[in-house]
Amino acid sequence: MKLITAIIRENKLDEVREALIENEITRITIVRVSGHGQQKEADIYRGKKVVPNLTPKVKIEIAVNDEFVDITVNTILQAAKSNSTGAVGDGKIFISNLEECIRIRTEEKGSKAI
What we know:
Blueprint: E1 2-9, H1 13-22, E2 29-35, E3 43-45, E4 48-50, E5 55-64, H2 69-80, E6 91-97
Antiparallel strand pairs: 1-5, 1-6, 2-5, 3-4
Helix pairs in contact: 1-2
């Protein structure tokens, strides 16, 4: 089991969500977040270093069984790019091992709970 976390542009959320649904990945969690990466360099204003403003983004979390990792990642990669080659600020995908998953309602554990 893996936890896939993707941080993408806000305006790409609908495209990514629709692409995931088309690939039968329907259980997702979405959180609005802010941050900055390579989009902006720190500026010098009146002799002082100014930290760039935080950019609104969307964080998507998807718990998947191992056989769905590649399809989930590839779907997000294709749908979240700004254009065919991508652009700075399109986001990142993180894949973490998921030690355990428990469905509260039925108390199922492991891959059945996902």
